[in-house]
């Protein structure tokens, strides 16, 4: 501006830049000191505004006498009288400011003066263009940085020398701070010499720097005590138009949740396939496959299935799976009450229960005080209809944060298990009905028709031949009496079963001693076994108190011991034991003899069922004794099951009965 003022032989010069609808003074020479604090002025109220409006130079010899001066502009600017202004244009030719010289006295302006101001305007235009470019570049850079920082995707870039030039917050959150002002390639080689792992972004970034284009590269990131994270990396080199390398850029996206959701859905579908159409496979085998699949597919350290023991009103661990590390603490209980431990709380609330930290979770102390390497767990109630009948528990070696997706899928898996158990129960009942119908026809056809035929035949003979010898008549009457008694037993058992199942015959629960009932029944069966080489081994405590119907439970004991005696081999023992198991009493009767096949063992307690070997060996029976025993036990709120062993071969029947008073 000094050179411009001198060339124009003017005492003062100034530069205005356009700022919206105002002009801002950005530089001057020879101006009064008070101009430095002059605020931006309206374009229409200044002589420079006239230059901008016209888009061409404005030459004024005397601002007071010149008619082209705007009416609102002052006729004298701080005493200045002469004005010469030239527009400043940007790269696109648009007027962005004014370069002007002033004089305190009126004067004519010569062509060389106009040329000097023109040169000054052009010089200012170059500076303005450069400044605008710098401002725009800075604004673009700030906008780009703000955009990248706002992304949840990690972004990092390096220059051609391998030095980090940018890393946004998301990338730092994923990988931590990356080294600055060093060649990342050399740093990586040094780091690998002392540490087995590198920040995940480095591998893809350096591969891109070497010229590779990467798309959807999956990277697993291990973190202490946390589930591995799954990242997807995209990376590419940055190349100029002439093929020179400017560096490389990598983007990293955390897709752990999406990956987890997909695995959860796959697991649920797998469980559904496992349990669909499974009407013949053993239930425990399928449930074991289910908890194994859940553990392996969802990366749990251990899984358990707890079933409700309705006799004792407790949860019992029915099945368990662990990975190869076997992290489940030893000595943890196999039985839990309502509200005890993770399984008990899920049972009590009928809601999914999470424990983020097992060692600090107060409720988990009922299972163990030292969970070792296990960190978290989830317990999911298994419903059958509207009632919780079991609990699925999964343990993790990682710190787990509960989330709605996993809770929903785990609840869905538990629902599939519940539907399977309910469906299996329905199938079993249907099968039992079918078998009962067939066996009933067989019973009527043989067990009832045969004695009736005998009675009718002898009755007819005695009527037709009144002169029968007394000895023959007495023998016929004895046969008729025996067959009548047999029919009476069948009818009595049928009436008992039907009456108790329909509710017309109820058990009369009183405080009683199961041990006394068992000892009395054993004594009776011993008398019946006279002549048999069978020993009774009794392990019964002095007293086993429970609430029940002693007459009905004596029927159960009699049926079990009589059945054991029928099947016991000579020279063997029948073992009878009574014990208590928490809130339940347990009676077991074992004998040595032929092993009952699994398919037949599951039908032992069905009405009218008799094993093929019982029929072929002519072992007496109606197929109602064990069925009646089951009905009586179930009326007491208990269970009865049959098991077999190979060493020595034989059968064990176990009865479990609640010891607490009904209704409490």
From TrEMBL:
Q: Would I find Nucleotide-binding among this entry's keywords?
A: yes
Give the chief site where it resides: membrane
**Residue ranges annotated for the Histidine kinase domain, each copy included:** 443-661
Family matches, as Pfam families: GAF, GAF_2, HATPase_c, HisKA, PAS_4
Map out region (Disordered) in residue numbers: 644-664
Q: What is this protein called?
A: histidine kinase
- Gene3D superfamilies named among the record's database cross-references: 1.10.287.130, 3.30.450.40, Histidine kinase-like ATPase, C-terminal domain (3.30.565.10), PAS domain (3.30.450.20)
- SMART domains, A to Z: HATPase_c, HisKA
**Which CDD domains does the entry mention?**
HATPase, HisKA
Location(s), subcellular: Cell membrane
Instruction: State a single Gene Ontology molecular function.
Output: ATP binding
The enzyme's main class, written as a single word, is: transferase
UniProt EC number: 2.7.13.3
Q: Which reaction does it catalyse?
A: ATP + protein L-histidine = ADP + protein N-phospho-L-histidine
Question: Where does the PAS domain lie?
Answer: 140-182
Q: Which UniProt keyword terms apply here?
A: ATP-binding, Kinase, Nucleotide-binding, Phosphoprotein, Transferase, Two-component regulatory system
Q: Which domain of life is it from?
A: Bacteria
Q: Which InterPro entries match?
A: GAF, GAF-like_dom_sf, HATPase_C_sf, HATPase_dom, His_kinase_dom, HisK_dim/P_dom, HisK_dim/P_sf, PAS
| Database matches in PROSITE patterns | HIS_KIN, PAS
């Amino acid at each position: 501006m000094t050179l411009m003022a001198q060339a124009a032989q003017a005492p003062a010069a100034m530069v205005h830049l356009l700022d919206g609808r105002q002009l801002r003074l950005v530089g001057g020479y020879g101006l009064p000191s008070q101009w430095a604090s002059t605020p931006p002025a309206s374009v229409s109220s200044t002589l420079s505004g006239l230059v901008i409006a016209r888009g061409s130079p404005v030459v004024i010899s005397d601002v007071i006498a010149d008619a082209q001066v705007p009416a609102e502009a002052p006729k004298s600017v701080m005493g200045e009288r002469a004005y010469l202004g030239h527009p400043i244009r940007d790269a696109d030719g648009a007027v962005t400011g004014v370069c002007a010289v002033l004089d305190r006295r009126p004067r004519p302006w010569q062509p060389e003066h106009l040329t000097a101001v023109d040169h000054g305007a052009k010089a200012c235009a170059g500076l303005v263009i450069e400044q605008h470019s710098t401002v725009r570049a800075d604004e673009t850079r700030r906008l780009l940085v703000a955009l990248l920082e706002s992304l949840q995707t990690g972004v990092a870039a390096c220059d051609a020398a391998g030095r980090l030039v940018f890393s946004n917050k998301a990338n730092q959150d994923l990988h931590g701070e990356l080294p600055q002002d060093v060649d990342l390639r050399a740093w990586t080689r040094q780091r690998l010499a002392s540490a087995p792992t590198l920040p995940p972004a480095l591998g893809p970034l350096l591969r891109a720097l070497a010229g590779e284009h990467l798309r959807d590269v999956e990277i697993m990131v291990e973190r202490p005590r946390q589930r591995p994270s799954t990242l997807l990396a995209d990376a590419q080199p940055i190349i100029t138009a002439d093929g020179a390398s400017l560096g490389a850029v990598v983007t990293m996206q955390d897709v752990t949740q999406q990956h987890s959701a997909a695995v959860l859905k796959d697991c649920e579908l797998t469980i559904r396939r496992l349990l669909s159409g499974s009407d013949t496979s053993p239930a425990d085998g399928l449930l074991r496959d289910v908890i194994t699949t859940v553990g392996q597919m969802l990366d749990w350290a251990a899984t358990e299935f707890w079933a409700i023991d309705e006799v004792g009103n407790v949860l019992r661990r029915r099945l368990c799976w662990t990975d190869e590390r076997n992290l489940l603490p030893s000595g943890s209980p196999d039985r839990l009450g309502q509200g005890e431990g993770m399984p008990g709380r899920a049972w009590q609330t009928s809601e999914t229960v999470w424990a983020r930290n097992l060692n600090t979770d107060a409720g988990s102390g009922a299972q163990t005080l030292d969970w070792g390497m296990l960190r978290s767990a989830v317990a999911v109630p298994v419903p059958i209809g509207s009632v919780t009948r079991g609990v699925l528990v999964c343990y993790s070696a990682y710190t787990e944060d509960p989330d709605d997706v996993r809770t929903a899928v785990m609840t869905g898996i538990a629902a599939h298990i519940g539907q399977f158990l309910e469906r299996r129960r329905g199938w079993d009942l249907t099968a039992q009905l079918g078998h009962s119908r067939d066996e009933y026809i067989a019973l009527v056809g043989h067990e009832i028709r045969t004695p009736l035929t005998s009675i009718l035949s002898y009755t007819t003979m005695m009527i037709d031949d009144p002169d029968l010898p007394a000895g023959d008549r007495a023998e016929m009457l004895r046969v008729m009496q025996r067959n009548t008694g047999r029919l009476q037993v069948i009818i009595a058992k049928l009436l008992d079963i039907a009456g108790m199942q329909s509710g017309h015959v109820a058990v009369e629960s009183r405080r009683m001693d199961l041990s006394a009932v068992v000892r009395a029944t054993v004594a009776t069966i011993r008398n019946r076994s006279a002549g048999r080489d069978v020993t009774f081994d009794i392990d019964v405590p002095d007293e086993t108190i429970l609430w029940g119907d002693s007459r009905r439970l004596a029927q159960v004991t009699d049926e079990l011991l009589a059945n054991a005696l029928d099947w016991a081999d000579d020279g063997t023992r029948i073992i009878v034991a009574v014990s208590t198991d928490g809130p339940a009493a347990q009676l077991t009767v074992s004998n040595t003899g032929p092993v009952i096949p699994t398919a037949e063992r599951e039908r032992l307690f069905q009405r009218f069922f008799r094993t093929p070997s019982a029929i072929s060996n002519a072992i007496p029976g109606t197929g109602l004794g064990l069925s009646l025993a089951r009905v009586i036990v179930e009326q007491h709120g208990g269970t009865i099951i049959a098991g077999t062993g190979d060493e020595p071969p034989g059968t064990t029947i176990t009865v479990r009965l609640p010891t607490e008073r009904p209704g409490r």
